[in-house]
Amino acid sequence: MDTQAQRSRVLLVEDEFLLADMVAEVLGEHGFEVFTAANAKDALRHLTGGFPCDILLTDINLPGSVDGTVLARLARELRPNLPVVYASGSYSRLEQLDAVAGAIFVPKPYNPDKLCEMLSEMTAH
Fold first, then answer.
1. Over pLDDT 70: what percentage of the chain?
2. Which of 2, 67, 104, 122 is spaced 20 to 30 A from 116 at the CA atom?
3. Is the pTM of this model over 0.70?
4. E strand or H helix at 84, and its extent?
5. What is the CB neighbour count within 10 angstroms for residue 19?
6. Helix axes 112-123, 17-29, angle to 10 degrees
């Protein structure tokens, strides 16, 4: 296990329970600490509560009035240097989104192991 990944905390925002559970399990196996939120409201509660977060990994299409792109902007207001990774099955490129600067896009379905490699590289910097 990568020691840097062991210290990295991922806020996973995904409303599809089975997908969230599977991704959280794989991230955990790769040494990440994972907090899962099913919607933007819960994710923002986590961020405003002062809990540690090294990466925001969010689905674009979330239930409620705040989608993943708005969530990322709000998260960056709270934590300006927070790395953001968007995931979606509805979009195919980052350019299709109103994305925050420096964000990364992962189209669904994605390989969870490759996602872990990417997140590990992001936190190594």
1. 94
2. 67
3. yes
4. strand 84-88
5. 17
6. 60
